[in-house]
Amino acid sequence: MIVYRKTEEECVTLELLKEVAALAEKPSLRHDEATELLMETGRLEAGVTDALFPEADGVNELSMAARRASVLAGHVFLASWEERTKDVSEWASRLLDALEGIAVMALPWKIKTRIPEGYVHYGLYPEVYIKAAKDFFERVGPPEAVCIGLRSIGTSLSAVVAATLEELGCKVRSFTFRPKGHPFRRKARLSARLEAALKVAGRHFLIVDEGPGLSGTSFSSAAKKISSLGVDGKNIFIFPSWVPDGSAFISAEAREVWARHEKFSASFEELWVKSGRLAREAAVGPGLLDISAGMWRTLFYKGESEYPATHPRHERRKYLSEGTVLLKFAGHGRYGREKLRRASAIADAGYGVPVEGIYNGFIKSGFVEARPLNRGEMNQVLLDEMAGYLAFLRKNFAAGKGMDFEEFCQMATRNITLGLGGEWAEKAATLEAMKEFYESGAPVEVDGRMTPVEWLLTKKGYKKADTLDHHSDQFFPSSQDISWDLASAIIEFDMSPMEQRYFVSRYSVKARDTVSADRLRLYMVAYLSFKLGYATFAAEELAATTEGPRFKEQASRYAARLKREILWIAG
Q1: Pairing of strands 236-239, 262-263
Q2: Which of 33, 81, 306, 331 has the fewest C-beta atoms under 10 angstroms from its C-beta?
């Protein structure tokens, strides 16, 4: 099934370098600014190194200069976390000198960088790697270490580990890899020069990344490659963002490698929540209530039998303060600021809950007394409100570029094939002939999730929750014609034909946008194909939990509706 999509950005290298330098030049860097500096320096290094070594990872003067810049940004970040103001300025000055040196080197003109999903969507905080590095040094205490970051996000995370160890007196040599290949079969490929450098670099090797993911192969391939250079397995250490037992990894090799090496990880809750730092930074009361990973459902439903399905690892961190203030993770740096602007605009227009600001990646808003809607719950007021909301999005959040039709169609076709079978894929072959309807649309930063549970009935009417970033996360839809959201609402609320006609007509009037029936049908098939793929994937991954049956029921419902829609377009 296809549920994920590409999330890359292309930029002019020298322009990105200047942006990083501008961040480093800021006087009296706040900690959230130090975090952004770390992220963007790592993004610069990862993009440059990827461009230099597209096939097998290597090492040269430019890649090592970029590596040192990231480690210097790690020092800025560490000093900021520990509130050593003078050291922050001194390390930022060193970083600026390093960036000036890189600027005069033979840089690739353009680079491609990946959106750092952990920093943007999943509440990854690099401070936990400071604690993990200190724990490692306290237990192992080597005079020298080799720190390996797995690109892309492992670039900045490994810089934090390397900087922490350096300040503890450890001599550190640092490099980065990007294991390549199919996501479930990644392999680390190194040039002879990089292998030679690693063989003489030291005895203790630390592999740093955000994962592990479903397969575990990024960590395992890096560890296997280092082992092949003659390094004793007991001297290879893994620094992940979380520590599963590894038994569920898709790769058998990853399961074996994961069990072999010692892991060092630390807890966001310990460093930010239990310490009181998040509450202090956001100026809210102590004793934050964690309502992440589906725990928010306890506030709205009488029992688990009423719970809607949710994938715990795909939810944003959320905390409730004194029952009246909500802190929801929105992303570090420019990503979080963009989401704050969107949330503010939607709230000001009357469609969302008012927001107060963003604090170290968390958007702060009021927590209003409300009830999530149920599937099939419908009335004219709600239809009007949803139509107005989508018209507002189309007018105010136009996207510069949408997804290619080929990628869009590939997702739908593959999910139909795997979810319904080849016979239904043949019936849906007419999708490929609907390109003109797709390209006649206008790309919009859509809501992406027009589900009943994300519409709230409050004392002041209906409000839309979760409006921030489904157009920009790692899943479909990306930026699409507003027909994606129209189709989503029609399907998720199980609208009758009369309700559907009223809803679409009200939207058309408010947006002054005529909705093609053929384009809407195309999007209904595509939306159902995506949701069938996602629900099937989640049902399998979460089969051993209470969420598994919920997603299995969803998959069955989407499959039945998808067959109906395919028959419409095939007829």
Answers
A1: parallel
A2: 306
**What would the pLDDT profile of 213-259 be if each residue is shown by its tens digit?**
888 899 999 999 999 999 999 999 999 999 988 888 888 888 999 99
- With beta carbons less than 8 A apart as the criterion, state whether 363 and 336 touch: yes
CATH of range 371-570; options 3.90.1200.10, 3.40.50.920, 3.40.630.30, 3.10.150.10: 3.90.1200.10
Return the closest-CA partner of residue 282 out of 326, 324, 315, 323.
326
Q: What's the residue count for the chain? A: 571
pTM above 0.90, yes or no: yes
In angstroms, the CA 240 to CA 218 distance is 11
CB 562 within 8 A of CB 532: yes
Boundaries of every domain in the chain: 8-266, 276-366, 371-570
Segments in 313-353 forming alpha helices (H): 333-348
Strand 370-372 to strand 289-290: parallel, antiparallel, or no bridges (unpaired)?
A: unpaired
CA 301 – CA 303 distance, rounded (Å):
6
Q: Tell me which CATH code domain 276-366 carries.
A: 3.30.200
For residues 70 and 52, give the distance between their C-alpha atoms in angstroms, rounded to a whole number: 17
- In angstroms, rounded to a whole number, what is the distance separating the alpha carbons of residues 515 and 520? 7
pLDDT of residue 341: 97
